[in-house]
Each structure stands twice: as C-alpha cells, then as structure tokens.
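This part of the workshop introduces the protein records we will be handling. Backbone structure tokens are a discrete shorthand for how the chain folds in space. Once this layout is familiar, the rest of the handout is easier to follow. The record below serves as our worked example for the rest of this section.
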Amino acid sequence: MRFFILCFLAITLTIPALRAEIRVVGCDILGKDFVAALSDYSRRNDLGIKLDLTGSGAGMEQLHAGLADLGLIMLAPGEKPPAAPFVVIPAAYQTAVVVVPSTLPLTQISFVQLNAIYADGADSTIKRWGDLGVAGDWANRNILPNISGPGGGLSYDLFRYTVLGTPALKPTVVVQDSVDATLRRISGDEGGIAIMPLLSDRQPGLKALLVARGVGDVAFGPTEDNVNSGDYPIRLPLYFVFKKSSAKQLQLVLRYLLSEEALPLWKGAGLVPLPVQTRNQQIFDLEVL
C-alpha cells in the first residue's frame, strides 16, 4: 500500500538577509515553535534564512531546480534518497510508540500482536490482557485500543502502514483528535493502550512498551540509540538534504540544528533527536565536506 506523508500546514517565513539568503524548504511537521526558534537563531547570527515548509515533495522539487539550499525532507518507506550531487543525512526521526499504564505487568509487544489488536479484519482472539500472557488482576480486563489521529502528526500513518497488515483500523479503535486527548484517555483508562508519536518523560503513570517485529524477535524501546540504529522498528527519518557545494554556507545552520540547544525543538515537534555521538560525528563530517 502507498504510504502517504501529509503536510497539512504551510508556513512561509522570511527573515531579512544580511548575508546571502539561505532558503530552507521541506515538510511542515516541525511546528511554529521550531520555526520561531530557527528564525531567532537566524536573526542573532545574521543568516538571512527564508523558510518555505510546504511539503517534502515540493521541497525536493525546489532543491532539484536550484531554488532552495537546504531541505528538511521525509521520504516514504522504501523511497530512495536523492543521489549526488546531494548530501543526505538523518536529522531526527518520527516514531510511533506503544503506550500503556505503568502498572500493567507487560514489557513488550510484537507487530503480530499489534496487528491483532488494531487491524480491521485481523483474525484474532486477542481481546483481553490475559490473551497476551498477562496474569493477575489485569488478565480479564479488556484491551481498549486508542491512537493519535492525523492531527497528532505522522505517527498515525506510520503505524498503520508500517505495522498493520492493512491500514484500516478496527471499529473498536478510538482515533483521538490530538496527542493531549490520547494522553488524557490512556491516563484515565486502566485497560487502555495507545499509539502516539512520543512519550514524554514527564508523563507519570504511563510507559512505552518495547516492540519486536516478530513474536520471537528481540524487542527494543524507542530510545535515541535504538531509533537511530533501526533496532526500534517503527521509525521514519527526517533528512537534511543539500548539495555538497552548499555545505560551507549551511554550516552554521546545521551545527545549530545538531546542537544540544536544538534538542527541545525536535522533541517539541514529536520527533526523536539523534544520539549525541551521532550528532557530534555529523558536525565533524560537515566541517570536512
């Protein structure tokens, strides 16, 4: 099935250029806080950044046409990154995490089990937590599935097209309007399970399950290291895309976006940032391009 990357909101921000203009294009999944922070950094450093975040497809067209300098681009799973003369490096990752109450005596779940819970038409007898091997008071409680809808970002489509055998959801799945609505539902629902972009460390009473592709495979949690290595199986990279000849011009912008200072911006956009070792290596590599 096709995986649809949806960029709903077009943000165009022009910052008066004191140096040569840096034109940044791509998919608008980052949000206004990200844009505001980048514009502030541009003003403080006289970079003259112009942002036109109208979609990854449109962004790639502008890069190919020479109308942009840097792309923040997401590609569909299996879609090949652009070849030379472009440089393509990961910037952050969209994920879909499986969230349950922290008191649930379950630590991991597989694609097969998630498909049985969420996919419409799945031939399954998984209806209660006991069907997943949970014992005690939880065993007879119904599994009540929730998911953050398209308004919560790309995790909705990422989960449906990456994990499920068919993207159609069971009628029993409640599609929440926002991440906040998902958190409210799962926090107050002892039998609930939810799919959402990211779980903040500041959410007491909830935990993210480890996820395995197959029932017998090793399960991994959505840590920065696991997501970056690909061990956590539900992820979609957001890439920096630029021509090698533009590396020197873009160095200040890229160093900022790979810095500790920018970490809250990626997380605020519901994305998993790169591990510190990877970010430091990329900064070094950029200096020698």
Observations:
- Residues 11-93+238-287 form a domain with the D-Maltodextrin-Binding Protein; domain 2 fold (CATH 3.40.190.10).
